[in-house]
Structures are given as structure tokens and as C-alpha cells.
Design goal:
This protein is about 30% helix and about 20% strand. It has 16 helices and 22 strands.
């Protein structure tokens, strides 16, 4: 984490140290925006939101161990006797501090974005790189204009590579994050339907995702999913990105299922808890501790990064096998009754929903297959159509029983009911009743897939089983 003096921090964030406090040698260790997680020696950053103002908690932060705080100039009555750094905007100061700290480190940057799979790709990429380098990765959902600066300020000074997840909800956000971090390698996992509500079309989503090249270092490398033609279509818009150069100004590498890509999988097969595969043209088996051919595609990006950093194929394989995945992304668990559950309740879009359903269909060794589907959110004016499409693709010969929860998922149930027997499709408005239905029907020899957008909180159903 960042360790600098009070006066150095003030200079790095372009603030003004409090003149009546003679503590220029005061040492600051780490930062925090939440008084509930303050550590001794921290700098407190009072951010301002729609329903809160961190300035109200500055004195509490100091009482809990912080040694200094930022203070926004437009706020009156700064508390006396506390080492403050005065800034025009605390959020901008945080971002400026992070960029300044990053410039002082000898660290290489990998940036990752995409509609789906970016967290899994981040986890696998970091695991591959950690076999050879000291690596830091984005923790949790610290992937936006607030979280990414905090991630950078958590870096130890001897970190060699940082793997940064970059999230967005609209145009310009990925560009800002990329220009802040200036990655050497950028990855675009795919372009799906997430954020259609904000951006309107998949073409605009593709433009938003390719903003990651805005901060790409000169001569850097973009690794992207070549199965998504929209990415290829909008890349020419980045011509002459580097001043004085013709063309893209960066290198490109593609991965995906199509043989035209630079990295493609072969011999994909699943066992009880993970997926085996090979790389086309290479006689070595890789294994990832997560299910699904779509996650094999994500692993290809991690392999490409490992090879870029001169890690041998056997060592890359070791890293992939040791990957630790962020929770609720095809997380295989067992209920107390022995029922197998695939918990994929972190997020959902039409493309990720289809991938999860294909995974369930491919699984072998289970008596019956059950799905619990929640709403897919932020899909804009076509949200009903997208949910009906999911219902249309469900096959009674491959999936035995369907349970849905949420206002939009009712359209999945209605569509599926056209081809399923009446008692095989049920919509619920109550999670406890849904859990009870599963418990009454399922046996230890069955498998349940739980999939929905984060706002649906479908993991609460698993607690009830």
C-alpha cells in the first residue's frame, strides 16, 4: 500500500497541507473511504455521494486510527487540530493521487474489460502471472472510477504486475480508467447485451469496451475475443490513436472458438468440478477449476497474457489449475442434503445466460437437471424479448424442471410453458416458496443451476435449501 509523508501526499494529490499543523514528517500508510474499515496510519478520503457526505465522519475516522484526511474546499468549518489536506474535489484528488503513485512504481499493467467474463478472466490471468511474478489484482468490485484508484493505492512498491478489472455503465468510463492506469496489455473478453439500457445498441457497447485502448501504452497489445465481429468492426475508429502514427498504433491478438483466431481451444471436456482442454496446435492439457466451455474461452486470454510475459506452457498450465475464482461465478457447492448447485448468481445477460444453460446441458453424471432463473436487468426496451428468447431455447430433453423468480423472468416461464408439461415450469414471487419447491422435488443425484442479475440476489435461495 502507499506509504508516504503527509507533505508528499499533499503534493501528489495536488492539495494544500494545513499550514497551522507542523507535521510535515507525519507518515501515512494506506487510505480508506470507510470509517468501518479504517486502519492505523490511514489517510481518510471523505467522498461525496447522492445520499452521504464523508466529511461528516472525518473526526470519527481520526478517532479510529486515521492520521490525516482530505478536505474539500467548498465545505465550511474544517475540524481543528486534525492534519487536513485541502483539495478542490476529494474524488479527483483520490484519482490524481493514484496516478501519481503509479508513476512512481516500476509495475506493468494488464487491463481487462468486457460484457461478461472479465472477473473470471482477471482471476485466471492473475493466477498465471503469479507463478512467476509478484502480482496484485482487483479485489471484489473495485473496478470503477472510485474502486480502481483504491486498487492502485493498495499496491506494494515491489509489485511487478497488476491485473485491473475495468467496469462501466456508459460511454467514457472505460476510457477514463484506461487513461488513468495506462495498461501495457488490454483484454476485451466479449461484447454482449449488458448496458443496452444505457447505450442502446451492441455497436455502442462495442465502442464503449474498445475505449480500453485509449490509455494503452505506445506499442502495447490488445487481446480481444475474435468471435465478436463488433469489436473488429469498431477498432478502425482508433486509427491514428498515437499521434504521428498510421494504423492502430498497437498490436492485436485474438482468441475464441473460431479457428481464425490466434488462440483456439481443442478437446474440451468437463469433470465434476472443472474443465480440461488443449490449445489448438499444442500438445499440452490445461485445466481450469471452473465449469463451462465459455470459461475455456476466457482462459485463452489468460494463456495469451502468460505467453506475452514469457511464461512457459507447463507453468501457465500450473497457474490456471491453481486459479481461485471470485464467488458466485459458476461456483459448485453441495447443499446439506447433498444436492449439487451451480451458483452463477453474480450477474446475468442474454449471452451469459445462454452460456450457463449450455454448460448445464453438457454436464454428465446427474439424474435430473433443474434451473432457477432470475431477471436479467439493464436490457432496455428489448428486455421482454430477451427473456422470451431464453424461454424459447429451453429443451425438455435436456433440462427437466424450470423455476423462475422476478417480474421479467415470468416471460421466460411463459415461453417455456409452451413446450414443457405444466408441472415442469413454475414462476415464484417468493424465494422461500421457490426453495421449498426445489427441496420437495430434487434428490442428491440432481443438479441445480442458479442464474440471475446481481440485483435479484438469488443466492438467498441457496441459504434456504
Amino acid at each position: 500500500m502507499i506509504k508516504r509523508s503527509y507533505s508528499q501526499i499533499a503534493e501528489m494529490c495536488k492539495g494544500i497541507a494545513q499550514s497551522d499543523v507542523n507535521i510535515t514528517d507525519l507518515q501515512i500508510s494506506g487510505i480508506s473511504k470507510d470509517t468501518r474499515s479504517i486502519q492505523a496510519g490511514n489517510l481518510y478520503v471523505p467522498l461525496i455521494g447522492e445520499a452521504f457526505d464523508g466529511h461528516q465522519f472525518v473526526e470519527d475516522a481520526i478517532a479510529k486510527g486515521a492520521v490525516a484526511s482530505l478536505w474539500q474546499n467548498d465545505h465550511e468549518h474544517p475540524p481543528a487540530g486534525i492534519p487536513l489536506i485541502f483539495v478542490d474535489d476529494t474524488l479527483i484528488a483520490l484519482q490524481t493521487l493514484a496516478k501519481s503513485y503509479l508513476s512512481q512504481l516500476n509495475v506493468r499493467i494488464v487491463g481487462i474489460t468486457g460484457s461478461n467474463g472479465k472477473t473470471t478472466t482477471k482471476d485466471m490471468t492473475a493466477a498465471v502471472l503469479a507463478t512467476t511474478y509478484k502480482v496484485h489484482k482487483t479485489i471484489g468490485n473495485y473496478n470503477n472510477h472510485i474502486g480502481l484508484p483504491f486498487t492502485l493505492l493498495q499496491l506494494e512498491e515491489d509489485t511487478e504486475i497488476v491485473v485491473l478489472e475495468m467496469g462501466m455503465s456508459g460511454r467514457g468510463e472505460i476510457r477514463f480508467l484506461s487513461e488513468l492506469a495506462e495498461p501495457e496489455i488490454a483484454i476485451i473478453t466479449n461484447v454482449g447485451e449488458a448496458h443496452l439500457l444505457q447505450l442502446g445498441t451492441r455497436e455502442e457497447i462495442a465502442r464503449a469496451k474498445t475505449e480500453i485502448v485509449a490509455g494503452l501504452q505506445k506499442g502495447g497489445t490488445l487481446i480481444y475475443n475474435g468471435d465478436n465481429p463488433l469489436i473488429q468492426a469498431v477498432l478502425p475508429e482508433w486509427e491514428q490513436h498515437h499521434e504521428g502514427e498510421q494504423g492502430l498504433g498497437f498490436n492485436t491478438v485474438t482468441f475464441g472458438a473460431r479457428q481464425e483466431n490466434d488462440f483456439t481451444p481443442a478437446e474440451v471436456r468437463m469433470d465434476a468440478a472443472g474443465t480440461h482442454f488443449q490449445l489448438s496446435g499444442l500438445d499440452i492439457e490445461f485445466y481450469i477449476p471452473v465449469l463451462g466451455s465459455h470459461n475455456v474461452i476466457n482462459a485463452l486470454a489468460a494463456i495469451a497474457v502468460g505467453m506475452y510475459f514469457d511464461i512457459s506452457h507447463p507453468i501457465i498450465a500450473e497457474g490456471l489449475q491453481a486459479s481461485v475464482m471470485t464467488g458466485m461465478r459458476i461456483e459448485l457447492t453441495k447443499t446439506p442434503m447433498g444436492l449439487t448447485v451451480l451458483n452463477d448468481a453474480y450477474n446475468a445477460s442474454p449471452s451469459s445466460m445462454k452460456a450457463a444453460l449450455h454448460l448445464l446441458e453438457e454436464l454428465q453424471g446427474y439424474h435430473r437437471k433443474i434451473i432457477v432463473l432470475g431477471d436479467m436487468l439493464e436490457l432496455g426496451e428489448r428486455e421482454v424479448e430477451f427473456h422470451r428468447e431464453i424461454g424459447q431455447m429451453l429443451d425438455p430433453n435436456k433440462i427437466d424442471r424450470i423455476y423462475t423468480y422476478g417480474k421479467l423472468s415470468k416471460h421466460i416461464a411463459e415461453q417455456a410453458a409452451l413446450i414443457y408439461e405444466p408441472d415442469c415450469v413454475t414462476h415464484f414471487d417468493d424465494k422461500s416458496q421457490l426453495a421449498q419447491a426445489i427441496a420437495n422435488y430434487a434428490t442428491p443425484n440432481d443438479v441445480v443451476l442458479v442464474k440471475g442479475s446481481r440485483g435479484m440476489k438469488l443466492e438467498e435461495i441457496l441459504v434456504l435449501l
